[in-house]
Specification:
- Two copies of one chain form a homodimer.
- Chain A folds into two domains: 55 residues, Orthogonal Bundle (Arc Repressor Mutant, subunit A); 137 residues, Orthogonal Bundle (Tetracycline Repressor, domain 2), CATH 1.10.357.
- Chain A is 76% helix and 0% strand.
- Chain A has 204 residues and is mostly helical.
- Chain A contains ten helices and no strands.
- The relative contact order of chain A is 0.10.
- At the A-B interface, helix 1, helix 6, helix 7, helix 8 and helix 9 of A face helix 1, helix 6, helix 7, helix 8 and helix 9 of B.
- The structure holds a DNA duplex (18 and 18 nucleotides).
DNA sequence: GTCTATAGACGGATAGAC
DNA sequence: GTCTATCCGTCTATAGAC
């Protein structure tokens, strides 16, 4: 029986349910648009009970955003300088698109934050994010120096991978409106199109 | 002296100032995040005075969004079926990128709306927007049939143009964080990169 | 047309019983 | 740990004087 940290199973379960519900609500409504009542209801709790687990609405949001950037950048981190250049980049595109498909709420939570000026993660963007991108830009430029891929602006190459893949999560409703209904799955065609696009762009 | 519509110059000027201020605030904070006080202050008016010109916060937002989609789609509408295919598409990309550079607030207003499920413009997306895209998809496919550009999925081609160009307005802070400061102008390099990208993708 | 004052609703957070 | 009740700040919108 640990006294210092009485972390019961029910506590863990409720915390998890709150974060899950909060991801739903924040990603769909933004921070200001979301209400604690909505999150509590979605988590199956009363509002005061939710605030027993988290000190404030802000704290829930911060916890969600906190871990997000790291997992979001994992596919980029995985890009191997010693691999076959075109294959590494195409694999990155594929993984990033899979993340949009499998974790659209996380993508929209992030998008909401950035579009509104990233008030809560500006530091991480110019810190961890910039450092990782700078490192991978050097890798890509080295590949181009060696003549193994065509030379392109590596920063904008990375921007383009982000925007193209995240578009399918962030602008989901627009994609489905244009393609004609929620039953259409845009991802197979999107994947094929993007593989084709980057193959043609980068083949020397 | 017109009695039916006493549209004085000061009225026109105030209405314009309100819409201008509202674009600032809505695009930066989203609909829920914006307050009437902020908009009024930015327009140099008191809150009740603002509400003398517009019946509600919602009405201001609706008026801004209302005209937006049309002007936003103008560059696509301009794409000429009888022009030189690659040149038409590259020109569309160029104009769309210029719109991100010159009207970033409009882009972010739109992005805020779509990311949060487009509650106020869902109809226009599956109506006017879809119709125009369907039409241009037929044009692009005809170009591919004639062997004048490489065959790609035309819907995803259009999606990619949207996402790549709007990224520089919507994710502005992230772009500047990565490139290392607000004084960097990403647009010249972005334009060159995008022209290169679509040229390589579409050249038969 | 523009202001001060305020109504009325909502949302975040807390008190305190159980 | 969970609830009911409630406080208090904020926000939209209106009333009414000037």
């Amino acid at each position: 029986m640990q006294q210092s940290r009485p972390e019961t199973r029910i506590q863990q379960k409720n915390r998890a349910a709150i974060l899950e519900a909060a991801l739903d609500v924040f990603s769909a409504q933004g921070f200001r648009g979301a209400t604690v009542d909505q999150i509590a209801a979605a988590a199956g709790l009363s509002k005061p009970n939710l605030l027993y687990y988290f000190p404030s609405k802000e704290a829930i949001h911060a916890e969600l955003l906190g871990g997000l950037l790291d997992t979001w950048l994992d596919p980029l981190r995985t890009m191997d300088p010693d691999g076959e250049p075109l294959e590494e980049i195409l694999a990155y595109v594929r993984r990033k698109l899979e993340m949009s498909r499998d974790y659209p709420r996380e993508s929209r939570l992030f998008a909401n934050e950035i579009v509104q000026g990233a008030p809560r993660i500006a530091d991480e963007l110019s810190g961890a994010l910039k450092n990782l991108v700078d490192e991978k830009v050097r890798v890509i430029n080295a590949w181009a120096d060696a003549g193994r891929i065509a030379r392109v602006d590596a920063y904008h190459l990375i921007f383009s991978i982000w925007s193209l893949t995240q578009h399918y999560a962030d602008f989901d409703v627009q994609v489905h409106a244009v393609l004609g209904g929620p039953e259409v799955d845009p991802y197979p065609a999107a994947n094929e199109y993007l593989q084709q696009l980057f193959t043609r762009l980068l083949t020397p």
